Amino acid sequence: MEDELKMESQSLDPDQGPCSVTDELSQQPLCPSPKLSVFELSKELESKNELIDDKEFDIPQVDTPPTLESILNETDDEEEPFVLEDPSLLNIDNIDTHSYDTSSVASSDSGDRTHLKRQKTKWPLQSMVWKKKLHDSFSVHGSVIRLSLLKGISAQIVSAAAKVDAGLPTAIAASSLIAVGTSHGLALIFDPNQALRLCLGSTAVGAQYGAISALSINNDCSRLLCGFAKGQITMWDLASGKLLRSITDAHPPGTAILHIKFTDDPTLAICNDSGGSVFELSFKRVMGVRTCESRCLFSGSKGEVCCIEPLHAKSELRDHPITQYSLLAMASLTKILVIGLKPSLKVWMTFPYGRMDPSSVPLLAWHFVAVQTSVNPVLAFCRGDVVHFLLVKRDESGAIHVTKQKQLHLHYDLINFTWINSRTVVLLDSVEKLHVIDRQTQEELETVEISEVQLVYNSSHFKSLATGGNVSQALALVGEKACYQSISNCGGQIFYLGTKRIDHLLKQECLNEALALAWSFHEGKAKAVVGLTGDEHKRKAVVADRLVEILIHYADRTMRKCPDQGKIQVMEQHFQDMVPVIVDYCLLLQRMDLLFSQMYDKMSENSVAKGVFLECLEPYILSDKLVGITAQIMKDLLLHFQDKNLMANMEACIVHMDITSLDLQQVVLMCWENRLYDAMIYVYNSGMNDFITPMEKLFRVIAPPLSAGKSLSDEQVIMGNKLLVYISCSLAGRAYPLGNIPEDLVPLVKNQVFEFLIRLHSAEAPIDEEVYPYVRTLLHFDTREFLNVLALNNIVAFLSLPKWRSPTKTFEDFKNDKQAVEYQQRIVDILLKVMVENSDFTPSQVGCLFTFLARQLAKPNNTLFVNRTLFDQVLEFLCSPDDDSRHSERQQVLLELLQAGGIVQFEENRLIQMAEKAEFYQICEFMYEREHRYDKIIDCYLHDPLRKEEVFTYIHNILSIPGYSTEEKQSVWQKAMKHIEELLLVSPSKAADLISIHFSDQIEQIIQNLQDQFLLFQFLKSLLDPREGISQDLLQLSPSVTELFIELLCQYDPDQVLEALQFLDSYRLEETIQVTKKHQLHEASSYLLEKKGDIHSAFLVMLEWLQSKLLALTHEAEKTIEFPSLKDIDNTLAKTIALCQRNSHNLNQQQREALWFPLLEAMMSPQRLSSCTVLCHYSEFLKNLTMQVLNNMAAFIALPLILQRILQDPVYGRGKLGEIQGLVLGMLDSFNYEQTLLETTTSLLNRDLHWSLRNLKASVTKGLNPKQDYCCICLQQYKRRQESADQIIVFSCGHLYHSLCLLSKECGTESKGQMRWTCFKCNASNKGGKLSETSSEMKKGTPASLAQIVLIQLSIVHANSESTSSESMLDPQQAQAFDQLCRLYRGTSRLALLTELSRDRGGEKHGLLRVSQGDPSLNSVFQNETFQLHLTPPPLLED
User: How much is the mean pLDDT over the chain?
Assistant: First the structure.
């Protein structure tokens, strides 16, 4: 097939076999360049790249040269070589933190959101500036690559597959020769002229070794290494074609060869297997015998390697010093390694990936790049969408250093990376799109789509399918996108290996892909097609014949591959997957003869296949893509659907088919029996041009039950609905269920349908049949819809029109046509006769008819005549029924009649009278609306029980919405005021809302007029309660209104009085207190007195209330008192105690005693007066209440006074000690607890203070040992400085400075007469951030964080420890030691916590320590985010 389908492609987008991509910027020839020295080459490259060296390595432009001091003060880690001893020390977060800022390769107008998010903030600006500085030729690139199809090689690969069964191509290697490996173990060698020079290997060896999985050609093109899917390796002589070595033991058995690479040393090669291991192969020849020694460089058990790349140097760079190390880069699933094979094995660099997509492919590529005056290799590696560049250098000592270069961030995942030259790289993403990138500017020069190549992927080798698939899941996942062996570059050219052309697809039994590819040939959409004629008709004819051959082969294979046994569902699934493909391509080729002859005959051999074939035709029939079905196929299709009971599918197909070739009577009978009414109507209409018989058949079913007054079944309802739709379609000139009636038949069909509907009797009418049975039946079935059918289709406009007239004109176009007017009047008379003269129609049905007539009569130029007496009869019928049933229905029918224009048929006053009599308030509203009598409408709403609450919205709209006159609004306002009490009865809340908006100035008058007190209460509650949503700011009410509401609330809802008093504020206290006292609401009275400020009176009210309850308890001692009474007493006491507690803080001692002691007396007096019986029942309860009072008053009354009052009480004073023992012991327990708490706190404070001072002293007196004997700023010996004012400053970190040097660096600050110093070198790494922060803290008086020891003339001078102010302050040594203790303790000390607590207590009690209120550093420790409470003893310091 490949030899037949050959066509030139203008796009030259490769799709099969090898193709090459040439960089037109470099245009490197295949012939070798003249040899240059390293220096000459570097000078040449430097001259070419002088514009970009600074950009390449991020060398900024410097306006002023640095000073010696700035150079000496630079940090040591800025130019650190990229060499790691322990890979685990490097994580991806650190890499990202120190990476250079890079821009994405995407163009500026790209809409990729992911790319935009990844960009740095400042880099795009630099990129734009750089582009503006370049010459126009730099920004306008044109096409920089040229795509070429290697037609000769492609054709010969196809020929080899056909002649020697070479199989599909699997791997490619390019040098001066091109080697292509195949799936059957052959290696085809081509010269630069695309001529086949050698065919190495045999299919027999291929059957033993498997497919060729990797290829490698050495530098002089004399040797070829082949790796196989089953693990073997062969070496061939490319000059003679001889097999030199067959290696079977170089690596563990059972693993495929993923990579095999020659190094620059022809006796040394590297291989990588599917186990993830890497081996070094050394080729030797001893005594004429060729041998191979293998050495494991990396074991897959430590991490599977899936990509290797040795460093290759061109001939002019063979003398480069780094080539002697024979560097090898390896990429595992977790990291990158660079190792040297010579002179001994050594790891020079490891680089972990970090977090990556596990399915992304690791990529490696070396290239020599000129950097200023030297040429060094750069390793590009990536996995995913970020490319890293590592510059590899050799220093004078022979060590290898790896330095990070600028990264390349992309918005797509890569599966291949190729260097074209030192400036240009070609990337292939996961959707097989090429991107040409300028590496220095990171600009995308060109993008080319090569998905048509259908690249060969190495997935099967990575999964090691040839050896049983014994690989890890991670490696198999990477192999899904691996195409290492399908791409090779040489001399500025890149070779891509593709496959999957038609013949190959057929041989591999990939028939679906073969059909798709052949159809793309047929449509001219395929690319890189070789040898196919350019004439479109000839091309389509040739390809169509080929497609037919493939389809026949496909059908044969479908039948042959059918499961012979098993479940029927398996066979059905098989054919459902295969048969639709045959139908699709036959229809695409428009070969109905092929589909319904050969293909159908083949499918008919199997009943399951035949059924699936017939079912596959359904979607094409429904979409009208398949209309010319043979009679036999159509008959088989209907029988199949009938057998499968797929009636709905059969009906849907029938209405899309030409059924004239079938037995129509048989089809009609089948449709009727299976209730396929749509199909039956279609057969009658399309097959017989009969539009009446279907209606007769349907009428015979639905008419009898309707005439008898019975309800219809669901099936009969469906038939009736279909009948109405059919009539509507016929009168509109449309075919049922879809399409249009032929234009020449439209007038005839309309006349026939109309004449049928208005027949006086049916064809086989019984003697007692009423007149106009069809109209009567449809009116009984659905009056409204039948009248809609007549109205929508303008039935009378199309009746008995001459054939030359257009059937689409309406009745208005024929208003002068006498015959049309007669037909219109005739149908109206029939409708009136049927419905008015019979009493078996409901009011709704009668109303529908007269609504229909009213709409027709309201049309302009109306010619219909309807006697007004009939409308009066209808009005009497609707408004004066024999019973009150269907009231809402009758009112709605009359309303629709009036709204449709029927109001002109009635006398309005009579209509209003009858509507009021019938209580049709909506009708009254409609009439009043017409007369603008809006005040009367209020009565309609108030009298209508279903719409009473809508009156508020109506009144609000009339008074608020513009468009009504002042008189109309005034009449509505007066009407509402007149019926205000009725409005309140409907809804007090809505009425209050309405009054607050429109009648706010009449509120007091409304209150005076309301006689019903409870209604007044509800109104005031809705008006004054803020929870009702009415804004109190809009109401200007006098306090008397609020007080009236409170009094009514005391009467009707006393439990809510206290809550109302709390949210109301527009009342007078004295009057309100009188109201609450009048109704004996003690708690409310107490609240008002407390609000007034009379605390003692408020307390007396609550005390009186409590005493009354206690008195009732003692008087009813002989009766059974239930638990709620006791609970009531407990609640009352709790409220009284709460009153005392709220106010005791603001009272003096005498006033407190006046509150608490009477309360205590009130609780103790019932115990003195009660009898033994009462004491027996409630003594414990009363004692508990007494104890509750004592516990609460203990916080405000001195303990001796409380004890004295208890002992003076007759009950406890004259009794035994045991009676008061519980009270006294409870109070003593509280005292003991507080005393123990105070002693424990004092002990803790003393211990903490002693521990802190002891360790502070030890830290301050500890000596410091400087790291060096020179100043870290001026680098001079501290002994040589002779200035008398100079001092030597030594920090606890070991750094030593002259004081003048620190002052020159602004590292000293004077605070309160004392110098505070900070270490310059320790703070230099923070870029000044911490230094400025520390300086600001010093100025505020915050202690420094470093110990500072000042030396003057080689002797230690201690800072003056005496206080310079009234407050004690730590000197620098003490502050530093205190900081060390705090860090050792790792938390806030207990002393600080207690100090903070004592400070928070306010003015009554003072803390143990004085705290400066103005120091911002002494904010609350509890507000610190890192505050933690440690309940462990302080740590011990070592001496």
Answer: 75
Distance CA 600, CA 508 (A): 26
Compute the C-alpha angle 49/383/475, nearest 5°: 145
Residue 985 tokens read as 């009865």
| Region of poorest pLDDT, from 62-76, 618-632, 726-740, 1019-1033 | 62-76
Strand (E) or helix (H) holding 245:
strand 243-247
* 556/846 Cα distance (integer angstroms): 70
Cβ contacts of residue 889 below 8 Å, gap of 6+? 842, 843, 844
Closest CA to 432 of 463, 405, 401, 453: 453
Ranked by mean pLDDT, which of 258-272, 391-405, 1001-1015, 1335-1349 comes out on top? 258-272
Strand partners, 347: 339
Degrees, nearest 5: CA angle 1384-1386-1388: 115
At 1314, which helix (H) or strand (E)?
strand 1314-1317
Helical axes 1217-1260 vs 1372-1385, angle rounded to 10°: 120
Q: Are 222 and 246 in contact (CB under 8 A)?
A: no
Handedness of CA 133, 138, 139, 140 (dihedral sign): positive
Whats the size of the chain, residue-wise?
Answer: 1439
Residue 702, pLDDT > 50, answer: yes
Quick one: which H or E segment has residue 1199? helix 1199-1208
Instruction: Report the distance separating Cα 898 and Cα 901, nearest Å.
Output: 5
Mode of pairing for the β-strands spanning 212-217 and 196-200: unpaired
Query: Which element (helix H / strand E) includes 603?
Result: helix 600-604
Count how many Cα atoms sit within 13 Å of the Cα of residue 1237 in the half-sphere of its side chain.
7
DSSP 3-state assignment of 1418? helix
Sheet harboring 305-310: ordered strands across? 305-310, 327-332, 335-340, 346-352
Q: What is the DSSP string of 1228-1291?
A: HHHHHHHHHHHHHHHHHHHHHHHHHHHHHHHHHT-----S-SB-TTT--BGGG---TT--EEEE
Query: What is the distance between the terminal CA atoms of the chain, rounded to a whole angstrom?
Result: 94
SS3 364: strand
Q: Measure the CA–CA gap between 1368 and 1354, rounded to whole angstroms.
A: 30
Q: Which tens digits make up the pLDDT trace of 404-450?
A: 888 898 999 999 999 988 889 999 998 888 999 998 888 888 898 88
1379-1413 residue pLDDT tens: 665 665 555 666 566 666 655 444 433 333 333 34
Position 106: which residue type? A
Over residues 717-732, the mean pLDDT reads: 88
Spatial contact of 375 and 368, defined as CB atoms under 8 Å apart: yes
Cβ burial, residue 187 (10 Å; 0-12/13-18/19+) = buried
Lowest-pLDDT range of 3-12, 749-758, 1249-1258: 3-12
Amino acid identity for residue 1227 in this structure = M
Tokens of 1094: 């009379």
- 100 phi and psi angles, rounded to 5 deg: -70, 155
Separation CA 667–CA 654 (nearest Å):
10
Query: At 911, phi and psi to the nearest 5?
Result: -65, -40
Residues 704 and 694: their CA atoms lie apart, in Å, by 17
* Beta carbons within 8 Å of 1357's beta carbon, 6+ residues apart: 1287, 1350, 1351
Cα→Cα distances 227→350, 399, 469, 1108, Å? 28, 34, 17, 109
What's the rounded Cα separation, in Å, for the pair 1092 and 1061? 13
* Residue matched to tokens 């429109």: 998
pLDDT score for 1434: 53
Helices of type H across 1025-1068: 1039-1052, 1057-1063
